[in-house]
Amino acid sequence: MNLAILTSGGDAPGMNAAIRGFVRRGLADGHTVFGIPRGFEGLIHAEPHTMTAASVANILMTGGTILKTSRFLDFHQVSIREMALDSLKRWQIDAVAVLGGNGSLAGANTLSESGFPIVGIPASIDNDIAGTDYSLGFDTAVNNIVSSIDKIRDTASSHERIFVVQVMGNRSGNLAIAAGLACGAEAIIIPEQSSDYASIEQRLLQTYARGKKHSFVIVAEGAGEAKTVAEELAQRTGREAKWAVLGHTQRGGPPTSHDRILAALFADKAVDLLTEGKGGFMVSLCSGSITSIPLVNVIHGQNQTLFHWQRLAELLAR
Ligand code: F6P
User: Fold this and answer.
1) Which of 46, 125, 264, 309 could cross-link 141 (Cys pair, CB 3.0–4.6 Å)?
2) For residue 306, what pLDDT band results from cuts at 50, 70 and 90?
3) Are 126 and 172 spatial neighbours (Cβ–Cβ below 8 Å)?
4) For residues 54 and 134, what is the distance between their CA atoms, to the nearest angstrom?
5) How confident is the model at residue 305 (pLDDT cuts 50, 70, 90)?
6) pLDDT category, 308, cuts 50, 70, 90?
7) Which CATH code fits 2-137+255-300?
8) Of 195, 152, 179, which is closest to residue 309 (Cα–Cα)?
9) 101 lines ligand 1 (CB under 6 A)
10) What is the pLDDT of residues 170-197, one digit of tens each?
């Protein structure tokens, strides 16, 4: 078969590892594998290139995506999607793997509904995709946040300050919750729940009363801005509160071993599905097993939230 792969939406560490896995597994099965540059936009404005085992050498350990990516809003238009299907036909591509988050998987689903064989590979630092316990890049992003907060802790502790750290996550609090549990944050503010500042104030004051030298509040970007939260908490507690926005540092750097392994397993499953002619699925990790779920269920499903971790994180920080 002529298989192709593209990466779409925000890049996520582990995308390159998945490209490598898909190309080498595809070649091992006797397929020809193409890379389509710049996501869905590449189906309209670019040309695919043949990928070899050597073309994916030395990328396992790198962040970003060698195929480049884009957020291509024009893909919502039927006429643009028809042009994309024409390109795939002209290039004689038999099936495509799409690596990306919710928007990209929705794009993949619309192509699949037109009858084109396509599988999704969940990749987003937000871990906000329904039907999979983990998306590629989440583990690395959590580790990036932990590493930044470990550094901020030294200075926060020296000055006995409150620190409010804003993390990514789009409209999901999952990244904030996982980072909060891993960093021992006193409070985690997420978009899925309204924030109770009176209770956070009490928690912070109790923290200092117990002799702790610093405290951390993690705010998910979808819930508000670190600066506003820091000002509110400084006013309420009468203590100095500083803030930091970690921004795109969270999304870069070498993928963790967890993301590399998951990328290999996802890519392997994606080639299996396409070889068996099973389009319209997303590969997923479900309770420790690699499996697949219909794309339509992913885009209409609810992602699993990590609320239960939030309660534990705040309890353990007391
Ligand atoms: O979806 C991944 C993500 O990093 C979100 O957490 C964030 O809101 C968004 O992408 C940022 O996108 P961009 O890099 O296009 O500004």
Assistant:
1) 125
2) confident
3) yes
4) 29
5) confident
6) confident
7) 3.40.50.450
8) 179
9) yes
10) 999 999 999 999 999 999 999 999 999 9
Place of tokens 């078969």: 1
* SS3 state at 39: coil
* Fold assignment, 141-252: Rossmann fold (3.40.50)
Q: What percent of the chain has a predicted confidence (pLDDT) above 70?
A: 100
Same fold, 2-137+255-300 and 141-252: yes
- Cβ of 122 closer than 6 Å to ligand 1, yes or no, is no
Task: For residue 280, report the distance from its CA to the centre of ligand 1, in Å.
Answer: 25
Is the four-CA dihedral 229, 233, 236, 238 of positive or negative sign? Answer: negative
pTM of the model: 0.97
Domain ranges (residues) in the chain:
2-137+255-300, 141-252
Q: Best mutation site among 72, 168, 177 for ligand 1, i.e. most ligand atoms within 8 A of its Cβ?
A: 168
Name the phi and psi angles at 103, rounded to 5: -60, -40
Rounded to an integer, the average pLDDT of 1-29 is 98
Query: Which structure tokens are listed for 97?
Result: 């793997």
Assess whether the C-beta atom of 124 lies below 6 angstroms from ligand 1. Answer: yes
